[in-house]
Amino acid sequence: MARVLAVVALLLLAAACAQPSGAPSPSTGTATTPDPTGATLEPSSSPTPVGLEEAFVINVVDGDTIDVLMGGRKLRVRYIGIDTPETVDPRRPVECFGREASERNRELVEGMTVGLERDVSETDQFGRLLRHVWANGEMVNAALVEEGYATASTYPPDVRYAELLAALETEARAHDRGLWGPACATPAATPPATGAGCDYSGTSEPVIKGNISLNTGEKIYHLPGGEFYDQTVISEAKGERWFCTEAGAVAAGWRKSKR
Hints:
Layout: H1 2-17, E1 33-34, E2 40-41, E3 53-62, E4 65-70, E5 73-79, E6 82-83, H2 98-109, E7 113-117, E8 129-135, E9 138-139, H3 140-146, E10 151-152, H4 162-174, E11 208-212, E12 219-222, E13 241-243, H5 246-251, E14 255-256
Parallel strand pairs: 5-8, 12-14
Antiparallel strand pairs: 1-2, 3-4, 3-7, 4-5, 6-10, 7-8, 8-9, 11-12, 11-13
């Protein structure tokens, strides 16, 4: 955590300098947070951003969504920049490590006053507030990725912590934490036959992205150069895949993106 918190502190220092000196800070809880591994995560000494919105967490919906009371109103908040395995979408089965992610999120924020940090967007297409959530001096979004409960899933223009979250996911993968561990292992993409190359790469590296739509559950594959290719992030823990060939993607049940 020390390295991560140092990075967060540097990112926040620039933001803090641009804020009015009298901007309020949220009153967050001070209790230590238990880690599932048995360690105790002490509250971070890194400064939280100034000017956060205070909110009281009344319900944890899943690993990346909470209900809060703010200004006398009940609002739903979607964490920015991360995605956790599905548990509540009736169109999709409960995904590996989804329940664990929900429980970890509950341990981190339920029943607490937290600080909400806006990036660029106010809400998503479903009317949920989009926020970075801070509790005990720690960014909860980052903690969930670092501990292996969430993937980094950044969508422009909300990219303030994109590099940090991507680095944390890489670290979690390297240490087989949470959903990157053997419990959620998925079969690797089938390599091409000897002497053959994957479509669009000409090597043994698959570059076709097999995405599953969060809105419809539809399986769509994206080709290099496509309109949504660069912004599409593949989460193998959610059943998404890399494909070597278009034929392989179609055979597996994916359709080609229309753009």
